[in-house]
Specification:
Blueprint lengths: L1 H8 L4 H42 L1
Helix pairs in contact: 1-2
Amino acid sequence: MAIVGRLEAGGASLEESLALWERGEALAKRCEEWLEGARRRLAAARNNGEDEATAS
């Protein structure tokens, strides 16, 4: 949020704005990776739960 706020506030040089943008993009990518990992773990847990329910 701080990055977006700094970009929206203006006043930063073009170089600083580009650096902030790149940092924001890198953070967004990392968050997407974490989210995808969580989705995979949740899917695996659901499948494991279904396997155990059908085995009983």
